[in-house]
């Protein structure tokens, strides 16, 4: 399966460092392809939020695919229900269950799913210096 790849949005802090913000452009989900979130594990621990919008008039699901690393991947895939015309936010608490060796995670969607996805996380480490 050739997955559609999305990148994690890393909000930037305003001058007082009190609020982080970013513009968001959701990605349309193609069920046949699934989604790969590139470098999902390279963010501050437990800050990755995946926003999934089900625009269909019927309920569907998203499957968080078990990763290719040992041992937590042995817990297997995880299915989450998404009610009709609803937006959900998934915050992963055990990333190692879904993490692939390249730091990505993969998502599959139930048949009939139509909608959008994006992911947001806090930057890990020091922000790059603007030139």
What brief labels describe this structure?
mainly beta; five-stranded mixed β-sheet; four-stranded antiparallel β-sheet; 11 strands; single chain; 131 residues; 0% helix
Structural overview:
- With 131 residues, the protein is mainly beta.
- It contains no helices and eleven strands.
- Strands 1-5-10-7-8 form a five-stranded mixed sheet, with no helix packed on it.
- Strand 2 and strand 3 (20-21) form a beta hairpin.
- The model has no long low-confidence stretch (mean pLDDT 92).
Short recap of the structure:
With 131 residues, the protein is mainly β. The chain contains no helices and eleven strands.
Secondary-structure topology with pairs:
Layout: E1 4-7, E2 12-13, E3 20-21, E4 27-28, E5 35-38, E6 49-54, E7 60-64, E8 78-82, E9 86-91, E10 105-109, E11 115-120
Parallel strand pairs: 1-5
Antiparallel strand pairs: 2-3, 4-11, 5-10, 6-9, 6-11, 7-8, 7-10
């Amino acid at each position: 399966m050739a997955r559609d790849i999305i990148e994690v949005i890393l909000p930037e802090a305003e001058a007082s460092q009190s609020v982080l913000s970013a513009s968001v452009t959701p990605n349309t989900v193609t069920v046949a392809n699934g989604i790969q979130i590139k470098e999902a594990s390279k963010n501050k621990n437990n800050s990755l939020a995946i926003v999934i919008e089900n625009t269909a008039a019927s309920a569907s699901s998203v499957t968080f695919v078990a990763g290719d690393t040992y041992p937590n991947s042995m817990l297997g895939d995880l299915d989450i229900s998404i009610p009709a015309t609803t937006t959900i936010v998934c915050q992963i608490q055990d990333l190692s269950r879904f993490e692939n060796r390249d730091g990505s995670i993969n998502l599959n969607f139930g048949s009939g799913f139509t909608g959008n996805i994006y992911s947001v996380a806090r930057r890990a480490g020091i922000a790059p210096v603007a030139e």
